[in-house]
Structure formats: C-alpha cells, structure tokens
Amino acid sequence: MSTDPKESANPRQQSQTFWWTIGFILLIQGFGSGITDLIWHHPFGVSSLVIYLGAPNWVSWLFGLAGAAAVTLAMRREAAERDPK
User: From CA 16, how far away is CA 38, in angstroms rounded?
Assistant: First the structure.
C-alpha cells in the first residue's frame, strides 16, 4: 500500500493543478517580460528565447494573455466543481 499522495490524487484535481501552474507561469513570464522589455528594452525568460529566435517583441504579451486565460479556466473549473448545478 502506497502512502504517496500523488498516486491517490483525483485526476480532475491534477488537471486543475496543471492549469493553475501553467497559468501563473505564463502570466508572470509573459507580462513580466513585456514590462521589462518596455522599461529596460530587454525581455527575459521564455519570451526572450522566442524573441531571440525571430518572433516579434509583442509575443511576450501573448504569453501573458495565454496565462490569464489558463488562470481564468482554472478558476471557472474550480467554481463549477464547488457549485454543480
């Protein structure tokens, strides 16, 4: 018998954890890089790698928007799970 909490976790809970994690990472990486690029003209993180490979500078903001969408999805799923109709 295993006592590892990850093995007994609900797959829906793992899915929500995934969306929260990805959402916050993209939110911080995207908007943080965009703001840093505006102030110091130097992006950071994943955005800087993508920009270095030839993407336009506004791609940082797309990462931030994707993060905001993922966090919104996680919030809606959590709310739906708490209050099923």
Answer: 32
C-alpha R_g of the chain: 17
- Quick one: angle between helices 59-82 and 11-40, nearest 10? 150
| Number of helices and strands in the chain (H, E) | 3, 0
The chain-wide mean pLDDT, for the chain, equals: 87
Q: Is the pTM of this model over 0.90?
A: no
Where along the chain do its domains lie?
13-80
Whole-number Å distance between alpha carbons of 41 and 35: 9
Tokens of 34: 């965009």
By the 8 A CB rule, do 14 and 27 touch?
A: no
